[in-house]
Amino acid sequence: MLARLGVFIFWLIHFLPFRVIVAIGNVLGTLAYPLAAERRNVGNINLKLCFPDMDEQARRKLLRAHFRMFMRGLIERSIVWWSSAERINSLIRIEGVEHFEAVKGQPMILLTPHFVGMDTGGQWIAQQVDTVCMYSKQKNLYLSDLLLQKRCRFRNQRLFARQEGLRPIIKGMKENMPFIYPPDQDQGVREGAFIPFFGVPAATMTSVPRIAKMTGAKIVPSITRLLPGGEGYVLTFYPAWENYPSGDEIADARRMNEFIEQRVLEMPEQYFWLHKRFKTRPEGEARYY
Q: Is residue 44 over pLDDT 90?
């Protein structure tokens, strides 16, 4: 019942002017910072690990800014889920679209790291082309079904649970459906390796170079940035990576992490710091969280 009530309120929010929705997100983020102690602790640990030279005051300021951006990304998802394509597109400025168009119709991996605006950029992409992607099942079945429904609003989007493995993803890619893939979550090292992320060993999937090798896919990174106030978003496509895969999965994974690091430094408040990025540790190393 509470989940359905929350979704109803969420649905009502999408009728509001965009600037008002932005303001609601900022207020909720300001309120969430002192209340969400566990997530605040995770974010603080992540920032300490990634920016060891940053003083405590600057780190606290950055984390507060991230909470505001995180809640903005969450609340503004109401637009992505229920507003018209025209309204969504009116809020997004596209940069580097030629890199996307150059590979369109060929096997492609759209690398979409966990920045707070990723869902908005994903909905623009979903209007242009059929895609395949993975999702994590939610504990609440109602919310899980809603999430799937809203991510499949446009065209023919195929979403598969992580438990289903890569086989359906590869099948879709062989039909020239881009694979939207966020590569920067800790999924353990059973199919990956410890690769530095801001100098800290992080469990990193090496599936990107493997999939690229299997399918001949080009890697085209895409990053969505939230702009201040009511200015909307910028979705940026980057040139397809050359000489990738290189034949060295560790080197390829390191290249991927280094690319994400560069984007994080451009807008550190918009990277998803509340996720336990360093949960899996090398044998014998103490846990961080």
A: yes
Assign residue 214 the CATH number of its domain. Answer: 3.40.1130
| CA 252 – CA 256 distance, rounded (Å) | 6
Report, in angstroms and rounded to the nearest whole number, the Rg of the chain calculated over CA atoms.
19
Query: For 165, left (φ over 0), alpha (ψ -120 to 50), or beta?
Result: left
User: Is pTM, for the whole model, over 0.85?
Assistant: yes
Residue 119 lies in a domain: yes
Going by pLDDT thresholds of 50, 70 and 90, the confidence category of residue 159 is: confident
Tens digits of residue pLDDT in 174-227: 999 999 999 998 888 888 899 999 999 999 999 999 999 999 999 999 999 999
The answer to whether residue 279 sits within a structural domain is no
Q: Do the domain assignments include residue 287?
A: no
Q: Domain range holding 134?
A: 2-270
DSSP structure class, residue 185: S
Asked whether residue 288 is domain-assigned, the answer is no
The single residue listed with the structure tokens 């990956």 is 192
How many structural domains compose the chain?
A: 1
| pLDDT confidence of residue 141 | 82
Using CA atoms, how far apart are residues 140 and 226, in angstroms rounded to an integer? Answer: 28
| Other beta carbons within 10 Å of 69 | 23
Predicted confidence at residue 166, as pLDDT, reads 84
Q: How many helices (H) and strands (E) does the chain have?
A: 12, 9
